Amino acid sequence: MTARPRILFFGYSEVGYACLSLLLERGDQVVALITHQDNPHEKIWFKTPALAARERGVPVFTPDSVNNPEWREKIAALQPDLILSVYYRHMIGTKILALPRLGAWNIHGSLLPKYRGRAPINWAVLHGEPRIGMTLHRMVKSADAGAVVDQEGVAIGPRDTAEQAFRKVLPCARTLLARQIDALLTGTATETPQDESQVTTFGGRTPEDGRINWTQTSGQIFNLIRAVTDPYPGAFIDVGGARLMVWWAEPGSPAASGRRGRPGEVLSLAPLVVATADGALELTKTEWRGTSATELRVGQIL
Known about the structure:
Shape: elongated
CATH architecture of the largest domain: 3-Layer(aba) Sandwich
CATH topology of the largest domain: Rossmann fold
Oligomer: single chain
Helix content: 25-40%
Distance between the termini: 71 Å
Strand content: 25-35%
Radius of gyration: 22 Å
C-alpha cells in the first residue's frame, strides 16, 4: 500500500483553521503545523489552526523564522512531500520551497494578480471593490507571484466592513482546497501564469493608516472607515491632546446630504457632521481616547 503524502502546513488566521481542519477531516497525513504565537497587542477575533492541530495531535511549532539553517534542517527532517501555506505571515525561503517533491502551494486572500501582499481584504474594501476572493497558487521567491491553480470569488456590498467581507470570503478557501487537494497530492494540478500587467501590490497596514484625510471624498473616507472598523484598530482624527475614533459614518444621511464646507470643517455637532472634499459625512459612532475629550465646535477644522 502506498503511503499517503506527507503534508507540512504553514498557517494562521481562521482561513488557516478552515483549511487545516479540512485536511484532518479527510485523513490526510499532516506531519506538523508551523504557525505564529498570538500577538498580545492584536485583537484575536478569529480561530487559529493551532486549535485544530492540537485537537488531532499534530505537532505545532512557532519559530520566529523558518529560514535559518537550524529550522531548514528541522523541516527537511520532517520529509514533507507537499507544503501548503494558508495565511502564514512570514516569507518562506526558496531552500524550503524546493524541499517537497509535490511542490509548495499557498492560498492568498485575493483574486490574483490583484492585491498581492498583506491585508488584501482590508485593501480591497478600502478601494471599494465589489468582488473579492481566494487564490490557490504555487509558491515562488516573490510573494504571491506564482502560477495560479484555481480561484473562488464572492460579491461584497458597498457597506460591508472588512470583517463582514472576510466572513463572506472565508468559505472560498475551503472550497478551493477541497476542489484541488487531490490534484496537488497526485502532482496533476493545472497551473496558469499570472498576468504581470494586471498586478497590484500592497503592504501591511498599521494603526496609523487609519488616520482620516478630510481632503478625500466622502466615499473614500467611508471606505477607509469600514475597512478598519472593529475588530481592526479603527479610523481616527487627533484633536488637541485627544484622539477621536470613528467607528462608523453615513455619507448619504439626511444630516449630511447637500452640506458643503472646507474639508475637515465641523458643520454640525448633534449630529456630528464633517465636511469632505465633495460633501459631508455624518459620524454616527465615535469614541474619545486620550487624557481628556476635546469639545468640538461648529466651524472648527479637524
